[in-house]
Amino acid sequence: MNSENLSSYLKASGFFLLAFFLFSAVTGQEIIPIKSLNSPYDEQNPVFSSNGELFFTVGFNPQNTGGPIDFGDIWYSKPDNKGEWQIPQKVSDLSTNGLDVLVGFSDALTAMVYHSGQNGKKQGIHLYSRFGSSWNYLRPLEMGNFKNNGTHFSGRLSLDGNVLIMSMNSFGSFGNEDIYVSFKQSEGVWSSPLNVGSQVNTFAQEHSPYLSDDLQTLYFSSNFQENRRGKDIYYSQRSGSSWDSWTVPTPIGFTNTQGSEMGYVKFPGENNAIFTSTQNSEGFGDFFIVKFQTIQPLIVQVETAITEIPQPLENEDLPKIENSIASEIKDTLKIEKVTVLQVIPEVRIDSVSKIVETIPEETIIETPISTSNRNWNEVKILDAQTQSPIGYKIEISNERGIKREIPNQNQLWNELEDPQWVNLSISSKGFIPQLLDKNSWIESEGKEILLKPAVAGTAIILENIQFNRGTSDFADAKSIQVLDDFVLFLKENPEIKIRLEGHTDNAGDPSLNKDLSMKRASKIRAYLTINGIEFERIRTSGWGGTRPIADNNTEEGRTKNRRVEMLIEN
Questions:
Q1: Which terminus of the chain has fewer CB atoms gathered within 10 Å of its CB, N or C?
Q2: Is residue 23 a contact partner of residue 16, using CB atoms and an 8 Å limit?
């Protein structure tokens, strides 16, 4: 594309902003352009990292690897100290001559990037590992019969890291690009893409899908209306557990114009969304912020009909009874037949099942007993050296790593009634934090938890940081929570320097084991430094299998030997 042709694509910025200000006045909703991110080129597919950076694809930028005809390289930006987005920078390590789209992060330091098949990277999704400001190539994902027959690709990884939602032209497409879903099978292995069905996908183009955190609502763009305008943003909800059964798509409020709107994504931790619009932009997209439209979950509407049941129900045949009504069930009540009419949004269950046969006691789901009026035996938090009580902070977290600070132990016991809270961390300035699971805390009732002082020579095994076997990839959200606790620990104790030592068992090639142990220690350092800890405060070493702490002849011993230790240095 020569400069004369390219100039015809440049955006008329003044008319663009004026159009949106007029549009926001009509809708009553404020729509704010992100001026520092927008360029005369095509900004698409925004994805947030765990530490608040924004990664996106920019098409036809002369600075792209393939020049002004390049369909898209990966760029990124992050907020400065005042919360303003910095000027975007190209991520050369993640970019090729073809279309490149970052779809998400399998962990805080591992990016998943689609490549269209240039520069020796086969078409598909590939893994990269972050090291400082660089990205190291790891490997392609195995995705069965993955095949993109078109030039467009967009997609995102779900919050839990187990579902990929994608737009492309592939097997079974109903028209142009359709939306597909793929599921994680094991580390690096995903299922073949599955078309989500004709309720969402049409003869037209369905682009830039995004799943809500609970995996129940799909936001996407489509031009199926044929109304002489570009793509609009819609939402649709899953009808049950199937991935090919969805409600009729409904337009999102406040965003849609005569141009094309795409890439609708919620800001992490905020009630705002970012999206792209081409209104008055000669076909290229700019980023805007608008209030995020949260969609209420679907609820099943039921009707009841009294039915005689000739034989007692077996346990597995009993209808599932919600906790909210279970406490009203008495031993003498009988079950009434429940007929499901339809699944519709924003309705309440208007009737409660009656009973026809006696319910066996073990089938009743009991409402948890409140602990608000119970007297629990306090767990003492002590200095491990002096055995003296110390001040401390408690945070609880769920499997996704979402945290909440708890003011006191009595409140903690109440919060632990909610099954979503599975872990808790205990920290104190000047002491090494501890992460416990819920059961460990319950077993500690009336006992003591000892925190080690953060003094030179103190060493601990980072037991809750787990890696996928044979790799330096973090295995779960619990590992990330431990790392987040240590980020806070190091920020609260800026004088402390540490050494991270990686260890393996003795199975396999000794030189490979030493390399792997070093990579794991370095991966932890990379996470700490990217979250604000100075690189010079953290040293690393890898010992392979040369320093076992348990018997390598047993699986239990080998598991103990595969570890990372943290040592506080002078």
A1: C
A2: no
Task: Find the mean pLDDT for residues 118-140.
Answer: 91
What type of residue sits at position 361?
A: E
β-bridge pairing 423-427 and 134-140: unpaired
Distance between CA atoms of residues 213 and 121, nearest Å: 31
159 DSSP assignment: T
Of residues 414 and 2, more confidence is placed in 414
To the nearest 10 degrees (0 to 180), the angle between helices 477-492 and 510-530 is 60
3-state SS, one letter per residue, for 323-383: HHHHCCCCCCCCCCEEEEEEEEECCCCCCCCCCCCCCCHHHCCCCCCCCCCCCCCCCEEEE
28, two tokens: 């009553």
Contact 99, 154 (CB under 8 A): no
Lowest mean pLDDT among 51-55, 184-188, 345-349: 345-349
Query: How far from 39 is each of 34, 44, 47, 61, 407, CA to CA, in Å?
Result: 10, 11, 18, 9, 46
Sheet holding 32-33, edge to edge: 32-33, 286-291, 272-277, 261-266
Task: Return d(Cα 509, Cα 315) in angstroms, integer.
Answer: 53
Rounded CA-CA distance 366/358 in Å is 16
Torsion of CA 114, 116, 120, 122, to 10 degrees: 70
Locate tokens 């949004």: which residue?
345
Lowest mean pLDDT among 17-26, 91-100, 176-185, 436-445: 17-26
One DSSP character per residue, 76-115 reads: EE-B-TTSPBPPPEE-GGG--SS-EEEEEEEETTEEEEEE
CA distances from 278 to 72, 229, 303, 427 (A): 16, 11, 47, 49
How far is it, in rounded angstroms, from Cα 270 to Cα 325? 34
Q: Specify burial of residue 350 (Cβ count, 10 A radius: 0-12, 13-18, 19+).
A: exposed
pLDDT tens for 441-462 read: 988 888 999 999 999 888 888 8
**Model pLDDT, residue 154:** 97
pLDDT score at 325 = 35
395-419: pLDDT as tens digits: 998 876 677 899 889 889 888 888 8
